[in-house]
Backbone:
């Protein structure tokens, strides 16, 4: 079956597959690392046992997610060379050093202090343990900064020249790192990671609240997650809007595809809410649209002229249907998060935040939506950059490694089988841990003796314990 | 001008790869020794002896790959497609063994499976790394700025030999690490293994060293002609000293010296490979200067390396210091 695909298609599928799997874990660990630092800080400040229990609970889930992030991340650092060798040769002088900075300033920081954070509270004392926890959280944020700078440079290249062998040569590192789309993308992604984590934490809290309204830890985490959601979702929508305006300025073809604007609208463009993109006829079938709204949103004037894909040569056009749909999925989920946040504020105001089963059920349903929105957003921006790897300068078809299609096909199948199996198992273990109450002494199953800061936990009865599990 | 940015960076990348080999070497080695553990308790101990540090150890591999991409992008663009299969296999193997650190504590029924995943992942990753080394030493075919060989060029008797050498060598590092970190029966068992693994490692290093000079006339010249031969004569002498320390300390019941001298085997062998290679980055045709990124890239990245690498070494050392000493069977977050 795979013989009918070119090495280019296979390499693109492979990169999309490995990077999509990978982004899920860091996205969760960026948010969770900060949450753990906050929990640990609050425990030290207030000496409220609830925070310590929550810290130990999420720490074990974090360890599994982080492990999956590490191993899927090592794969990424070699994918550029194995499948995209020409890209590596040409863009390496610019994006390579940024990635080297990511490794040196972030990965080592995370890895070096992770052991102390997970295993070392007793050995190093509370203050150094807090420092290690903060360093892990800080490391995840630095990592996001560098890798988003790399990605943004590929979207909006700046500060370079091209030498006689066709390599991008750095001219101004400041311009390269702080390229035009970088600040917007960074803010949008970091907030997305926090929101994703808040949705997961909220869903886990909701599961335990449905079982026991009085569960102290469940109440605390649900409340914290809902505050985060209520406050940060509006900020995220605002940041996303700014990011969109920036894209309109630097990558107009991507916006045209997101909006589904095949045709130019010299007197105000409509906002297409839904419809079916028809790439052959170059139009949106069954479009439901609001006149002039697209111009109003993007140009802040109801009859501002908007160019369509008819102004872009066919060979430079991104695949419209994918971008059109993934953008709508992301935006739709964003507004659903806004709704959940508003509902939680209302429930809190009326005093039934912990006793509203439908709010809790909705929060559970929304639990995985952060991941879906993040993936949809990345698909929008990455597919929207096509057919280029470095926007406008280096085509995807010219970036490929000289590897035969059967080799790429074989490795692709291996990645698919291994990833689904390994990360499927990991997700199962995480869900099983989440299904246990935070106060359960053996959340991680075979933890052995947990000694937390001089407190020996009294033997507790675990209501969920099933022998042999 | 020899002592320029590209030269400094070649040294730094070599340093990163060496640090990777000796650090991840012993934790991969523990995986290779996993089936020989006599009880589940021993397996728990073996894994816990590296659980706090393995992640940092593996990060040096990312620095090796990322660093090559940053400062020698052409080498990265040629070597990766040339070693496509062994590298992909190594990455997948590392996935299995990496997740086993957490997974085997999270299940009862499947614990045995993750024990084998830890073993299988470790031994396959080690073998693939050895194959990659052998394939690089025997040379890579290029045309223009790209790899020009086939996708099975890496598979030769020599690369399989180096694959075995690395597996046995890593198992030696793992055994001596466990001698250092454990007590009682496990310590005695590993001390016995270390003796045989040490002999095997040295034998394989010897065979590889005898073959290498005949793979390429440049290697031969480097080792057997003046002035190179003066330097290259020092290498075997140092090696003999290490061998003496290794076996006497092992027999005298010492815990630390066998590990350090086993690390020494790797350091000396690595320097030997360096002598063979220099100034090539992609043997037999491209030197470090031909594959180097422009000076503006090298200088920018070097500022970071000069500031950050010492800091990394400091807190890595700190992490090892925190978890120093014999491992306490009663302790653990696990």
Residues:
């Amino acid at each position: 079956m795979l013989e009918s695909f070119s090495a280019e298609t296979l390499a693109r599928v492979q990169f999309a597959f490995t990077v999509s799997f990978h982004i899920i874990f860091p996205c969760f660990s960026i948010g969770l690392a900060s949450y753990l630092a906050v929990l640990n800080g609050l425990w030290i400040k207030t000496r409220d046992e609830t925070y310590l229990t929550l810290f130990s609970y999420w720490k074990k889930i974090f360890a599994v997610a982080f492990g999956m992030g590490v191993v899927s991340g090592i794969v990424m650092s070699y994918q550029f060379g194995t499948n995209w060798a020409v890209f590596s040769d040409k863009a390496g002088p610019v994006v390579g050093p940024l990635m080297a900075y990511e490794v040196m300033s972030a990965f080592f920081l995370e890895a070096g202090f992770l052991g102390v954070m997970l295993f070392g509270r007793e050995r190093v004392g509370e203050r150094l343990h807090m420092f290690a926890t903060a360093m892990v959280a800080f490391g995840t944020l630095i990592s996001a900064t560098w890798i988003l700078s790399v990605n943004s440079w590929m979207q909006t290249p700046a500060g370079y020249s091209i030498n006689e062998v066709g390599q991008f040569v750095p001219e101004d590192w400041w311009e390269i790192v702080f390229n035009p789309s970088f600040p917007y993308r960074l803010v949008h992604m970091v907030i997305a990671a926090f929101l994703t984590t808040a949705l997961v934490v909220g869903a886990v809290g909701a599961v335990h609240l449905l079982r026991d309204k009085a569960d102290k830890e469940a109440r605390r985490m649900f409340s914290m997650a809902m505050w985060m959601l209520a406050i940060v979702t509006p900020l995220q929508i605002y940041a996303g809007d700014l990011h969109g305006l920036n894209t309109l300025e630097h990558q107009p073809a991507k916006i045209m595809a997101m909006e589904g604007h095949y045709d130019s609208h010299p007197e105000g463009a409509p906002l297409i809410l839904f419809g079916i993109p028809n790439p052959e006829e170059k139009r949106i079938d069954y479009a439901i649209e609001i006149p002039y709204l697209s111009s109003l949103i993007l140009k802040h004037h109801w009859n501002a002229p908007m160019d369509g894909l008819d102004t872009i040569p066919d060979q430079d056009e991104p695949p419209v249907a994918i971008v059109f749909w993934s953008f709508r999925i992301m935006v739709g989920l964003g507004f659903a998060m806004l709704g959940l946040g508003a509902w939680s504020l209302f429930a809190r105001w009326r005093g039934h935040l912990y006793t509203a089963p439908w709010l809790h059920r909705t929060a559970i349903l929304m639990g995985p939506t952060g991941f879906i929105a993040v993936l949809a957003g990345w698909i929008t921006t990455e597919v929207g950059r096509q057919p280029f790897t470095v926007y406008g300068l280096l085509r995807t078809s010219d970036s490929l490694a000289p590897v035969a299609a059967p080799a790429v096909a074989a490795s692709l199948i291996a990645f698919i089988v291994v990833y689904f199996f390994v990360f499927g198992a990991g997700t199962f273990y995480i869900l099983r841990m989440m299904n246990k109450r935070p106060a359960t002494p053996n959340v991680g199953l075979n933890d052995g003796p947990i000694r937390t800061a001089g407190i020996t936990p009294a033997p507790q009865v675990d209501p969920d314990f099933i022998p042999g599990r | 001008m020899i002592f320029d940015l590209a030269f400094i960076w070649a040294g730094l990348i070599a340093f990163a790869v060496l640090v990777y080999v000796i650090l991840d070497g012993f934790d991969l080695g523990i995986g290779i020794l996993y089936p020989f553990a006599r009880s589940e308790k021993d397996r728990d101990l073996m894994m816990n002896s590296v659980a706090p540090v393995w992640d940092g150890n593996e990060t040096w591999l990312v620095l090796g790959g990322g660093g090559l991409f940053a400062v020698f992008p052409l080498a990265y663009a040629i070597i990766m497609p040339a070693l496509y299969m062994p590298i992909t296999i190594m990455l997948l193997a590392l996935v299995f063994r990496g997740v086993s650190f957490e997974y085997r504590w999270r299940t009862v029924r499947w614990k045995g499976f993750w024990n084998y995943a830890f073993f299988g992942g470790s031994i396959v990753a080690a073998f693939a790394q050895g194959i990659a080394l052998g394939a690089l030493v025997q040379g890579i075919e290029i045309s223009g700025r790209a790899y020009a060989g086939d996708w099975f060029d890496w598979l030769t008797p020599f690369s399989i030999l180096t694959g075995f050498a690395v597996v046995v060598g890593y198992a030696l590092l793992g055994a001596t690490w466990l001698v250092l970190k454990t007590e009682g029966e496990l310590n005695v068992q590993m001390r016995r293994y270390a003796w045989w693994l040490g002999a095997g490692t040295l034998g394989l290093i010897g065979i590889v060293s005898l073959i290498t000079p005949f793979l390429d006339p440049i290697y031969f010249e480097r080792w057997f002609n003046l002035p190179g031969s003066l330097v290259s004569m020092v290498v075997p002498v140092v090696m003999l000293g290490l061998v003496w320390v290794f076996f006497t300390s092992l027999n005298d019941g010492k815990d630390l010296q066998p590990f350090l001298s086993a690390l020494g085997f790797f350091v000396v062998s690595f320097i030997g490979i360096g002598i063979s290679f220099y100034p090539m980055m992609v043997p037999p045709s491209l030197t470090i200067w031909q594959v180097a990124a422009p000076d503006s890239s090298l200088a920018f990245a070097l500022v970071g390396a000069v500031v950050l690498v010492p800091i990394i070494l400091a807190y890595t050392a700190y992490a090892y210091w925190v978890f120093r000493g014999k491992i306490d069977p009663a302790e653990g977050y696990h």
Observations:
- Residues 9-322 of chain B form one domain.
- Chain B has a mean pLDDT of 87.
- Chain B is about 75% helix and 5% strand.
